[in-house]
Amino acid sequence: MSSEIGTIVVLAGGLSHERDVSLRSGRRVAQALRDRGHDVVESDVTAGLADLLATTPDPVVFPVLHGGDGEDGALRTVLDLLGVPYVGSSGPASQRAFDKSICTPLVTVRKPEQVALPNSVFRELGAPALVQSVVRQLGLPLMVKPSRSGSALGCTRVDRVEALPAALVAAFAYGELAVIERFVAGTEVAVTVIDIGEGPRALPAVEIRPRAGVYDYTARYTAGETRFIAPANITDENAEACAAMGLAVHAELGLRDLSRTDIIIDADGPVFIETNVAPGMTETSLVPLAVEAAELDFGELCAALVRQAHVRGGGTSQG
């Protein structure tokens, strides 16, 4: 069975703040593929990766790296240069999706108003000169987050003007650029989009109900901290609108194979929050829950994605 799609190299780990989650995701993907008889090699991103790929027979990479090089397109660009096929979006498309200060302005779906603020400007002008202007433009409450990070790391809800400087400092701990958005209250859902050669398909939305009320890092990756409902307990109209939003974002950003779009449904319908080209695959992650809700087999889906990448082949991508 394995020869038809080559040797699968599952890349997990990396040096980002999400290393532990990535390793857990990688183990789950690798085991699901092995259970179906495929040849799988697990690897971290090290100086020996290029040699590993050069000496592995007919390699196809399944990247399960979160944050940093795993999602910003850098690794995927390297794989294109090496001529190694891989599952997922191209380097340029990944870069568009990963950076929230780029992604949110690009998509044409309903989205919160946003301001991007570099750390250097914050330091030079000082908080008092900026805080009142930001609040005057966006109002309260606000959501502050790093422009290039995931798993809710460095994210803070701001309800008072006085709390905004500390929230920005928390976001700057994860990168030079922070984004400040108008906070959207409502039902939080995630829409997974897959494409295994028959065109993009939106899986059932998964509803997220964190026990503490905030879907932060602990709520995401600690069993029992969040209740997930799949399919989401939402109206048919909102379910269709969320699916359409996920598909629109996937298309507008030029994504391929797999993406997950996070959405909040308020009184007027779905609002885009962000999208992810390397979503988590752990036991508490949203993509496997959506796959199960769609009555698909997780391992077979992973194999189908690898098969498509194998057929596509490696090489420089313009996407």
TrEMBL record:
GO biological process terms on file: cell wall organization; peptidoglycan biosynthetic process; regulation of cell shape
Q: According to the record, how does the cofactor bind?
A: Binds 2 magnesium or manganese ions per subunit.
Record-annotated residues binding Mg(2+) 2? E274, N276
GO MF terms held by the record: ATP binding; D-alanine-D-alanine ligase activity; metal ion binding
The pathway it acts in is: Cell wall biogenesis; peptidoglycan biosynthesis
For this UniProt record, give its keywords in alphabetical order, as a comma-separated list.
ATP-binding, Cell shape, Cell wall biogenesis/degradation, Cytoplasm, Ligase, Magnesium, Manganese, Metal-binding, Nucleotide-binding, Peptidoglycan synthesis
A single cellular component GO annotation: cytoplasm
Q: What class of enzyme is it?
A: ligase
Q: What is its EC number?
A: 6.3.2.4
Q: Which residues form the ATP-grasp domain?
A: 109-307
Query: Binding positions for Mg(2+) 1?
Result: D262, E274
Q: Which catalytic residues are annotated? A: E18, S151, S285
Cofactor dependency: Mg(2+); Mn(2+)
A Pfam family of the record is Dala_Dala_lig_N
Gene3D superfamilies to which the protein is assigned, alphabetical: 3.40.50.20, ATP-grasp fold, A domain, ATP-grasp fold, B domain
The coiled-coil segments of this chain are: none
Q: Which InterPro entries does the UniProt record give? A: ATP-grasp, ATP_grasp_subdomain_1, D_ala_D_ala, Dala_Dala_lig_C, Dala_Dala_lig_N, PreATP-grasp_dom_sf
Q: Which HAMAP family match?
A: Dala_Dala_lig (MF_00047)
Tell me the function of this protein. Answer: Cell wall formation.
**What is the name of the protein in this document?**
D-alanine--D-alanine ligase
Q: Which organism is it from?
A: Micropruina glycogenica
